[in-house]
Amino acid sequence: MKLRYKISIWVALALAGSLLWGGSVWLWLVGICAGKFLFRMLLTIVLAIAVYILTYVLIIGAILWILIS
After folding, report:
1. Are 45 and 30 in contact (CB under 8 A)?
2. CB 7 within 8 A of CB 29
3. What is the gyration radius of the CA atoms in the chain, in angstroms?
4. Is residue 46 within 8 Å of residue 39, measured between CB atoms?
5. Does residue 32 contact residue 13 with C-beta atoms inside 8 Å?
6. Is 28 exposed, middle or buried (0-12, 13-18, 19+ CB in 10 A)?
7. What mean pLDDT do residues 10-36 have?
8. pLDDT tens digits, one per residue of 33-52
9. CA angle 35, 11, 46 (to 5 degrees)
């Protein structure tokens, strides 16, 4: 998607939020951008923890398989 379409979608969301719940358009736009950043950060942390746990499960499973065999 082109950058100008993305920007126009974010501005439209900020305008809609500002009209529905009051407040400044700039505050809504900053809130949307900050929320997007925090969501990406949270998703990255969750994926890193999942990969960490799966790696250790694989290592322990391989050790147990070798010891049992």
Report:
1. no
2. no
3. 22
4. no
5. yes
6. buried
7. 78
8. 888 888 899 999 999 999 99
9. 20
